[in-house]
## 1
Amino acid sequence: MTLPTQPNAVRLRVWRNLKALGCAALRDGAYLLPEEHAGLLAPIAAEVREHGGTAMVLTLTANDATQRQEIEALFDRTEAFTQWRDTATTLQAELPQLTETDARRRLRSIADALQALHRTDYYPGAAAAQADADLASLRQALDACFSRGEPAALPAHGIPRLDAAQFQKQRWATRARPWVDRLACAWLIRRFIDTGAQWVWLADPASAPADVLGFDFDGARFTHVGALVTFEVLIASFGLEADLRLQRLARAVHYLDAGGMPVPEAAGLEAVLAGLREVHADDDTLTQAAAQVFDALYAVPPPSSTSPSTVPSAAP
């Protein structure tokens, strides 16, 4: 499409309508929607023509799978989900200072904003699933803050709540040569769940001994559930969701293990753990060294309750 430079109000209205539909920009004046939503472009094209512009609605076909992936990448909503997550994190940090009415009003607004994002996320990926899990965690944190004394609701995805007292001095098993999720789980288990935990490193998870508690492999007692990685499942299982420092760590572990929304700590954490893996050939020694890294990250104060500023995007 092309539009006359004046009146500017028409240009802004057309651009806002295209943005509200979640259109991807192929280039200046060329906007994309999945074919099944092409009918939404017809009213916009009609308005452009009514104001002296030109507009055509065409069908674009990718030449091959690589080109199709490039086109779909133009619809990537990871940045928008990350900005949404920042707002949700701010609310969780501010819960102790809010009244229940204000907290639930803001939660509704955050939930509505996520639904709006989903409506324009035409090719959902890991970020969308992670946002849904984050919203469920936020709801639980709010209920825990304002509904004290009532029975705890099941965490997201129906993960049963467990009593750490029933999991003491256990033998915990996972795949040998642990990486981010397994290293984080080992730290979490020994620090928050079972201080007397012993590790069993499995060369073949299919042959795990019957008397161990498995984590982060197929068939293990604790492993991925829905969009949650094993570290997040353990947090939910033992009722640790209200700990904002753990939630910050969980976001980094999730991103490094399953993708989704990036976080500032992830690159540094990955680099340090990769270095430790090169230095330590013994898995017990590696786990002890990694625990010091997670201890240090956990010691960083939780995020400030100051709401992040929102910078509006400039119109083309």
## 2
Amino acid sequence: MSGDDHGGGNRAYGRRAFKRSRSHFADRITADGRDGWPVEPGRYRLVVSRACPWASRAVISRRLLGLEDALSMAIADPVQDDRSWRFTLDADDRDPVLGIRYLSEAYDKRETGYPGGVSVPAVVDVPSGRLVTNDYQQITLDLATQWSALHRPGAPDLYPPALRDEIDTVMAEVYEDVNNGVYRAGFATGQREYEAACTAVFERLELLARRLEGQRYLVGDTITEADIRLFTTLVRFDAVYHGHFKCNRWKLTEERVLWAYARDLFQTPGFGDTVDFDHIKRHYYQVHTGINPTGIVPVGPDLSGWLTPHHRQELGGRPFGEGTPPGPVPAGERVPARGRP
């Protein structure tokens, strides 16, 4: 994932206290190139896993903003080995653009002997093969604000200046209690630690449900970065967090408001068409052997509900503001049938 401390390999999950490390490589790709990395079409490659909620933020943002031609994307195998993310979904087990077999090779070109984990999302400089950034909190904000010259016509404003303070506040609460909270619960090594994290998850979800009962989106009347960040946890909730991470006070499908909100976003172009439930389930259940030693992947849950009517449009709101939905998913980036409802 992103920011996880991978020391000890896959077996360590659930066997020692969970701590999300800060992004070590926090250079920014900006319009003015202040960090030495100017925005340029075709120069960079976004490396993701469809299993990872932190990487999925970048996949959704890139698609909503229409950056597919400007920023190419590599999709890693959802099942890591102890060298972490690998390109075994590609011919010859190599990324066809970077020519590498493991994402760690791009990390090594940036810093030899880097002691931290190899995380996604990561942005790699194609000419040099070097990692630029793995700052999962900043990457999507920069896609929205620094890459604007390359946005598609009709791209939404995902981080509107007038709403940024409120967006930042909501995102900080969602991150602490929900995005990261499910991990604190799932990787807890003691009962008290688990119960505190799990309680915080559901208290925050209940507050968010109250907020969303009368408004279609988290901040303002359009989709923003805040919605993207909540969605990537909600879409994984029943498939992995409810069972695998023991966040099981209730299922998402049992919470009327949040379930309708999540379906609304899932059915919005740019959200559900990036989600691969097969990758999600195989990653969590097969990689976290400290939690699930058999590696057995459950057959459920039934995914058909994601396509049912949500009626959230009755609250008004304009998903893309003054803009328009993104076009069809590029042929090479379509989620295989086994990963879709």
## 3
Amino acid sequence: MTQPTPRTDTDAAASGGFLAEIKDAVTTRAAVLVLGVLALQLAFITSYIGAFHHPRPREIPLAVAAPAQPLAARTAERLAALPGKPLDPRAVADEATALARIRNREADGALIVDPARPDDRLLVASGAGASLSQALEQVIGLAEKSQGRELAVVDVAPADQGDSRGLSSFYLVVGWCVGGYLCAAILAISAGARPANVHRAVIRLGALLLYAIAAGLLGAVIAGPVLGALPGPVPALWGLGTLVVFAVGALTLALQGLAGVVGIGLAILLVVVFGNPSAGGAYPYPLLPPFWRAIGPAMPPGAGTYAARSLAYFRGNGAAGPMLVLSAWAVAGAAVTLACAVVRRGRPGAAVGSGPS
């Protein structure tokens, strides 16, 4: 007597036709994740093109100095009235004050008016971004020409010879951010998106801190002594890099604790999709559209880029605020990670790829 042959899953799918084969090959969970990736991709395209497709100067901080205070005030008023408000000029006492405002990162440039000469001087700082210096030169050059004046440009904080257009700080910070969320994602892949208890959450944060220390040091050494792309003290850049990596990694761990595997995508959304184009890298804040200009200083890439430029070209002036922003992300991320572990105590987290966690 012939024994019946057991039916396999493949046979069952085949007997149900092509639709059944699709359902067997692509689970509902996989389909939802693919749709999430599509949404992330479209957000990426929209954010980057939206930020970069039409850079236009908006209220660039500018100091104005002249031998007589009334002349400086009148010049500032005239520049403030330019169509589209590309400048935010402020009259200051003298050239020394104007220069100090640039070096303290309180102004992005300074116009020194000298009625005894046929030309005025524009002080710029290309270390804060070459595109910003060029925008100032273009806007003020046209304004001076309309007054029958010539313009001489002086770069008082030039970008280093190895720092093409002042972008090395931005790329360094982007690299640190990538390391932060990838390290956190790998921890999820290896042992579950959500830590099973507080001890494991502390271990993950400790591992992330060790990684951040190493990544911060190596990034600073490569950008500085190895490639000669970014001036500035290596210990200060090391500290900044450690903070950037840990802040982004802690944010990613926190989002994983809240949303499981989806948290990795949320971290990419915040850091890469919204954070990178608003970081002031290719186009500093005054050249970005209002939305990206508003969120940039509060995001890790923007805070890190601004602080890196401050350390490299402005003796650390202006770095305190961005460092506080990064510290807030780091503390909040670590706190949420630990809180999620407390709530989830005793429930093991599945590794990424093994099903919902």
